[in-house]
Amino acid sequence: MSKRGAFVVIEGLDRSGKSTQAETLIKRLQAADIPSKLIKFPDRSTPIGKLIDSYLRSETELDDHAIHLLFSANRWELASSIVKDLEAGTVIICDRYAFSGIAFSASKVAPSAQPDAPTTTPTGSNIAPTHKTPPPLLPYSWCRSPDVSLPAPDLTLFLDILPEVASQRAGFGGERYENQEHQERVRELFERVAEEVEAEGIGKWVVLNGGLELQEVSESIWSEVKEVVRQGVEGELGNVKR
Ligand code: TMP
Ligand code: MG
After folding, report:
1. Which residue segment(s) compose the domain that 148 sits in?
2. Residues with C-beta less than 6 Å from any ligand 1 atom
């Protein structure tokens, strides 16, 4: 069996540098004459992607379940072409994937459940604000379901950055999920996702320091991918598991 192209995903919080790094990586692959393609989720160009874009810009309101399913449907739209490209030997670099889908949706909480609001007892005395994580709006296992069976990445690079650092970067706050509290919960959820991916043993999950200088991050990415993108992958493409 001939080798197939590697499926490499870059994940992280908003403003963690994913898109910049994905573009740098694809240029490097092209300069090295390695057949490769850059894709991004959400893909805002499709009809489903346009609905997602409008939701993220807060131009439309959608039920939390519905938007979650749209994000997943947006991946299913491209799933067969991803498989085809990989089998043809093309490396796929993918800016966000199902892991973002799980982490961003499973970290949503009701606005009234935001922590730190002091509550008052029936006798009128104040209860100190708690820092307990509020209950999620969508169960974690429900959030995982729609992406089950999608092609699984061979390698996921998580660009780790502290939410307080990300929130200082230019452009932060422009879209719906770009607030520090949500990003903090997203980062915790990504840790859970990472543990599960590692336990499944289907693809590799690597955490890289996204807080370094651009070029240092690019180099750390290159040292993780260079072998697999040059040599291709021997085994069959995996699937996202339940
Ligand atoms: P972007 O900034 O990479 O274009 O992503 C847009 C936002 O959508 C970002 O806050 C992450 C979020 N997101 C989800 O909530 N679910 C998903 O499935 C994906 C791919 C992104
Ligand atoms: Mg963003």
Report:
1. 7-115+133-231
2. 14, 41-42, 56, 71, 96, 100-101, 104-105, 175, 177
Ligand 1 centroid vs 43 CA: distance in angstroms? 10
User: How does residue 34 score in pLDDT terms, banded at 50, 70 and 90?
Assistant: very high
Atom of ligand 1 nearest to the CA of 19: 3
Q: How many CB atoms lie within 10 A of CB 83?
A: 16
Residue nearest to atom 9 of ligand 1 (CA): 14
Determine the residue of 65, 104, 176, 180 to mutate for testing ligand 1's pocket, defined as the one with the most ligand atoms within 8 A of the Cβ atom: 104
Instruction: Tell whether 125 is covered by a domain.
Output: no
**CB half-sphere exposure, 89, CA atoms < 13 A:** 8
| Residue 31 neighbours by CB under 8 Å, 6+ apart | none
Q: Where are the alpha helices (DSSP H) in the chain?
A: 18-31, 47-56, 64-87, 98-106, 140-144, 163-166, 180-200, 214-231
- Taking CA atoms, 62 is separated from 49, 59, 176, in Å, by 14, 10, 12
Is 128 domain-assigned?
Answer: no
ipTM of this predicted complex?
A: 0.99
Q: What is the token pair recorded at 188?
A: 């915790």
Q: Rounded to two decimals, what is the model's pTM?
A: 0.93
Is residue 128 over pLDDT 80?
Answer: no
If one residue of 96, 107, 137 were mutated to test the ligand 1 pocket, choosing by the most ligand atoms within 8 A of its CB, it would be: 96
Residue type, 217: V
Average pLDDT, the chain: 93
Residue 237 within a domain: no
Atom of ligand 1 nearest to the CA of 176: 10
